[in-house]
């Protein structure tokens, strides 16, 4: 440590000493002001009802079978939800040749890819009764963070307490087409095949903004922070 | 989500929010929900079986003579997980051979085939349809395993329908060497002869029983194999030609190979609801006739 720094510390200590001495003087009159500052965060909570989700498990399907699911996305929090980003992934599939078409017809006749299998399932989606789209599962597979509410970055898709209801219909398409010079239907290659659809819905917050005060903490809550925080849990 | 958990998450989010805000990004709060769904296709598969050991269901007979009869029972067994609605029978293909076409010129034929010096040999039949016309399909019985009301006789001895008629009338994958008027004539003859018209599906025959109940077709649940009985007889025609030889002599050393096909079909698609499901989402009604209706 050089001599200049040492001197500086000496001076600082001197100043502190002075002020401390000042604190110890007689103090008759003074005034103290305080401010109460409150920061309570909101809750961003996307909810899917137990009875209103897409969680079907179906085994032993045949072409022509169809079923419907209702998906309700609800804002169960206290913050506006800006967008809902959807990711869909299909897995758990294996190629099966239950009828052994590879032997009965020709090598490869009983084989197919995951995309071929998924293309057999037509999906029709409506939102609150309005038809949105009809497509096939292979088109939905691999969708990543697709915005499904149709709102931009500045618009709330879902206000607290509101919900969007999607009706989703699935149809195992019935395609009346046989292999060349054979009675075997082409769709036989899909017998005994299965797949799992995983869907992820991510709700995002609105952009940050300059905020004024929402309340007078002292008057509205009697100063009880716990009840305020608990009040966010609607 | 329980209240306590939610509160904890709230405070965690708050903590995360602060640190992320410090990092300069604004999209800090989010919530992620997952769903998972699974679906699997069933199997539609049928086997042909013997009704008993040593009772073959195919016709593989040589050295036939007029008056011979052949009766075969074919058992249809559902080996899949889906109910079978109908089993449609067709004659897909026919191959024919005659001693006249196989052996060629007469001297060689005489050596190899001692009978070939006879007059019939000069006129030996080479027409496949004429040969098939010598075989009367005298019985087609469905549900032969049970009897009673479930047993249906589609065709009897008196109907005089031959393999030629069936072959021509049948919807086939392979084209036939016959005119459309021949085919149409055969179709109307077979149609008129079949006792229960509802078993005629296009130009094929449904060979499982139509009962309009849970036993229709080949359900998986309950287990209900059906047996088809076919009886074919080599017609014994007593007509003789001018030389006193039976006219049927020209069919000696003829041979035909017919390919029958049996297509098992699925029931119509149905709307799947909770009522259709058993454990693990297994669609039990797809094992049953008419979707369990």
From TrEMBL, chain A:
Domain of life: Bacteria
Biased composition (Polar residues): 223-234
Region (Disordered): 206-234
InterPro entries xref list: Peptidase_M73_camelysin, Signal_pept_SipW-depend-type
NCBIfam families, sorted: cognate_SipW
Protein name in the entry: TasA family protein
Organism: Piscibacillus salipiscarius
TrEMBL record, chain B:
UniProt signal peptide: 1-27
The UniProt record lists the keyword Signal: yes
Region entry Disordered, spans: 273-293
Feature: compositional bias, Polar residues: 283-293
Keywords from the named record: Signal
Keyword RNA-binding: no
The organism's place on the tree of life at top rank: Bacteria
NCBIfam families named in the record: cognate_SipW
UniProt-recorded name of the protein: TasA family protein
Organism encoding this protein: Piscibacillus salipiscarius
């Amino acid at each position: 440590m050089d001599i200049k720094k040492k001197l500086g510390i000496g001076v600082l200590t001197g100043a502190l000493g002075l002020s401390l001495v000042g604190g110890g003087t007689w103090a008759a009159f003074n005034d103290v002001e305080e401010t109460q500052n409150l920061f309570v965060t909101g809750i961003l909570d996307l909810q899917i009802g137990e009875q209103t989700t897409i969680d079907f498990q179906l085994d032993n399907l045949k072409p022509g079978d169809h079923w419907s699911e209702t998906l309700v996305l609800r804002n169960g929090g206290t913050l506006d939800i800006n967008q809902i980003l959807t990711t869909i992934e299909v897995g758990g599939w294996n190629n099966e040749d239950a009828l052994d078409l590879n032997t009965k017809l020709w090598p490869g006749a009983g084989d197919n890819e995951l995309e071929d299998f998924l293309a057999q399932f037509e999906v029709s989606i409506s939102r609150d009764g309005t038809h949105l789209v009809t497509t096939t599962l292979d088109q939905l597979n691999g969708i990543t963070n697709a915005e499904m509410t149709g709102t931009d970055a500045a618009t709330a898709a879902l206000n607290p307490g509101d919900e969007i209801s999607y009706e989703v219909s699935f149809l195992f398409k019935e395609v009346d087409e046989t292999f060349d010079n054979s009675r075997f239907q082409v769709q036989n290659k899909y017998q005994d095949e299965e797949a799992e659809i995983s869907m992820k819905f991510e709700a995002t917050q609105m952009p940050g903004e300059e905020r004024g005060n929402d309340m007078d903490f002292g008057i509205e809550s009697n100063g009880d922070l716990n009840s305020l925080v608990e009040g966010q849990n609607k | 989500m329980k209240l306590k958990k939610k509160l904890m998450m709230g405070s965690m989010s708050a903590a995360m929010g602060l640190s992320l805000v410090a990092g300069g990004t604004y999209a800090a709060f989010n919530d992620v929900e997952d769903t998972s769904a699974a679906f699997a296709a069933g199997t539609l598969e049928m086997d042909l079986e013997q009704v008993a050991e040593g009772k073959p269901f195919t016709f593989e007979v040589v050295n036939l003579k007029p008056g011979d009869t052949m009766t075969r029972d074919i058992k249809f067994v559902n080996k899949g997980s889906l109910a079978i609605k109908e089993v449609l029978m067709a004659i897909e293909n026919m191959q024919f051979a005659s001693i006249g076409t196989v052996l060629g010129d007469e001297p060689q034929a005489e050596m190899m085939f001692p009978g070939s010096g006879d007059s019939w040999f000069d006129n030996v039949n080479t027409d496949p349809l004429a040969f098939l016309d010598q075989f009367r399909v005298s019985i087609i019985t469905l549900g032969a395993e049970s009897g009673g009301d479930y047993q249906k006789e589609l065709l009897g001895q008196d109907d005089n329908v031959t393999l030629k008629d069936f072959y021509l009338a049948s919807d086939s994958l392979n084209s036939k060497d016959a005119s459309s008027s021949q085919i149409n004539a055969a179709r109307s003859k077979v149609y008129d002869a079949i006792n229960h018209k509802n078993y005629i599906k296009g130009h094929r025959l449904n060979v499982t029983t139509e009962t309009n109940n849970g036993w229709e077709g080949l359900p998986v649940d309950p287990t209900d194999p059906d047996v088809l009985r076919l009886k074919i007889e080599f017609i014994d025609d007593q007509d003789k030609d001018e030389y006193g030889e039976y006219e049927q002599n020209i069919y000696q050393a003829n041979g035909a190979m017919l390919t029958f096909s049996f297509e098992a079909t699925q029931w119509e698609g149905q709307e799947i609801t909770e009522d259709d499901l058993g454990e693990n989402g297994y669609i039990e009604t797809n094992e049953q006739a008419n979707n369990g209706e």
